[in-house]
Design brief:
The protein contains eleven helices and ten strands. The protein is an alpha+beta fold. It folds into two domains: about 80 residues; about 240 residues, BirA Bifunctional Protein, domain 2 (2-Layer Sandwich). Bound molecules: 3,4-dihydroxyphenylalanine.
């Protein structure tokens, strides 16, 4: 009889049920009136007196174990049932409203992406800068008008003592200097960032805006390299049919300098109000890095040469998306921002 109980104990231990019906069948098999445990109870009468204690204890153990196991399985079923009741798979998903990427970020990422494919790495520098990195190291003469208080925000030391040394950067060209002072060529970097100018805010001017600067310095870098990079950039950004033209210009930090126009992407170059009927729109400034700038930043201008270019991200975004009021970019009007949902 001990052997029989042992066997049932093992069976009970291994018991599993896949459904409530199976569980009920197990209960009937072991614990009902006509079940295995009661059957053994009936046989107990015939156990010799000297074994009664041992067998009795075993039998009780079996009864308790069977009861416990069946209760445990039942609980498991009940909690699973509850879970199922709460989970309504036909319910519609919780409405999570997603934000949209800002149009300036979309355009910035696109510019970075194009230059990254030409081997440019991202660099950055501080927005609160010193005069050296923004102006002096970029070859601005002491009396250059850009240093004038009309253009530059100066950081005050205290209420009536204005420091002319610490300013808000007026262009990302300062990052050129930040990189060159710490790195020897080859340098091939692109730096997106925010710049500040003391301008009255209107539909076409803002006190802050965004630029992307590119700088390439190495041995034998020529104007041809610049022109090729510009053409590739313009065609990737505005479409393969885009033409470019370079007009001579002046910047303190490049020599020679140029401004680049692209064929108007609104009228395709035929002439329209947007391009003032010229067929061309200006998009960036560029040139060969002035040897003075290389020397001022610790690079030997007899060994190395380079090109640089800088563009306004708002300007590119205007051309791509025809946003004709600059202020929209910084007003956080979600109706405007939502229009760019599909743009990336
Ligand atoms: N820093 C110029 C600006 O803010 C843009 C610029 C022009 C950057 C020519 C350049 C460059 O690197 O070569 O208007």
């Amino acid at each position: 009889m001990i052997a029989k109980i042992e066997q049932l104990l093992q069976e009970v231990e291994a018991m599993t049920a896949g459904s409530a019906e199976e569980l009920e069948a197990l209960r009937i098999k072991y614990l009902s009136k006509k079940g295995a445990v009661n059957g053994l109870m009936a046989d107990f009468r015939n156990v010799p007196a000297e074994q009664k204690k041992e067998v009795g204890m075993k039998l009780n153990e079996l009864k308790t174990k069977a009861q416990e196991k069946i209760n445990a399985l039942k609980e498991q079923f009940e909690s699973q049932d509850n879970g199922c009741e709460e989970m309504d798979l036909t319910r519609s998903a919780y409405p999570v409203s997603l934000g949209t990427r800002h149009p300036l970020s979309i355009v910035k990422n696109e510019i970075i992406d194009i230059f990254a494919r030409m081997g440019f790495n991202i660099a950055d520098g501080p927005e609160v800068e010193d005069d050296w990195h923004v102006f002096s190291s970029m070859n601005f003469a002491e009396d250059h008008p850009a240093r004038d208080m009309q253009d530059t925000f100066f950081i005050e030391n205290n209420a009536d003592n204005v420091s002319h040394n610490i300013i808000l950067r007026t262009h990302t060209s300062s990052v050129q200097s930040r990189v060159m002072e710490n790195t020897q060529p080859p340098i091939r970097i692109i730096c997106p960032g925010r710049v500040y100018r003391n301008e009255a805010i209107s539909y076409r001017a803002h006190a802050f805006f965004h630029q992307v600067e590119a700088l390439y310095v190495d041995k034998n870098v020529s104007f041809t390299d610049l022109k090729q990079a510009l053409l590739l950039f313009a065609q990737e950004m505005f479409g393969a049919e885009t033409k470019i033209r370079l007009r001579p210009s002046y910047f303190p930090f490049t020599e020679p300098s140029a401004e680049m126009d692209i064929s108007c992407n609104i009228c395709g170059g035929k002439g329209c109000p947007f391009c003032k009927h010229t067929g061309w729109v200006e998009i960036l400034g560029c040139g060969m890095v002035d040897p003075n700038v290389l020397e001022l930043n610790g690079i030997d201008s007899k060994v190395y040469s380079g090109y640089a270019l800088g563009m306004g991200i708002e300007r590119i975004a205007n051309l791509k998306y025809r946003v004709n009021d600059l202020r929209l970019f910084s007003e956080n009007d979600t109706r405007f921002l939502k229009e760019f949902e599909a743009a990336y």
